[in-house]
Amino acid sequence: MELTEIRASTTGRWLIRTIAGAVHLLDVPPDGRARWATATAPETASGAPARPVVHELIAWASYDVLTGVREGISLGESLLFITEPLTPDGTATAAISAPVLSISPLPPQADLVGARPTA
Fold first, then answer.
1. How far apart are CA 52 and CA 114, in angstroms?
2. pLDDT surpasses 70 at 90
3. What is the DSSP letter of 40?
């Protein structure tokens, strides 16, 4: 079942694909401590697929160059992720994707499969 949006107050797990071909996993548990991983990680130097890195999120939203940032994630708008950990000087890291092509709900799971936490 494909979705058209993920509301900011919703909990769950989703597979999000962008028009550029990237695949993202978003996990928002009931405690609200959202996590994000890119499922299409690049290969390692040995040619083996790299495991995706899990990022703790400070905030997540949609971004559109004409309308700006808004709560939730919607088809056709870019993903905006603000991640932990902050840099030593307290600066947050932001990631902006290509526009979202599809949003698919995933079943509950204990952890993001094959992913490793950020250091």
1. 7
2. yes
3. S
For 93-99, what is the mean pLDDT? Answer: 92
Cα separation values, 21 from 17, 18, 56, 115, Å: 6, 5, 23, 19
Measured distance CA(66)–CA(100) in Å, rounded: 16
Global pTM? 0.79
- Two structure tokens written together for 30: 């009931």
**Computed from CA positions of residues 117, 86, 72, 63, in that sequence, does the dihedral angle turn out positive or negative?**
negative
Of 58, 46, 44, 60, residue with least CA distance to 116: 44
Beta bridge partners of 36: 26, 55
Whether 46 has a pLDDT exceeding 90, the answer reads: no
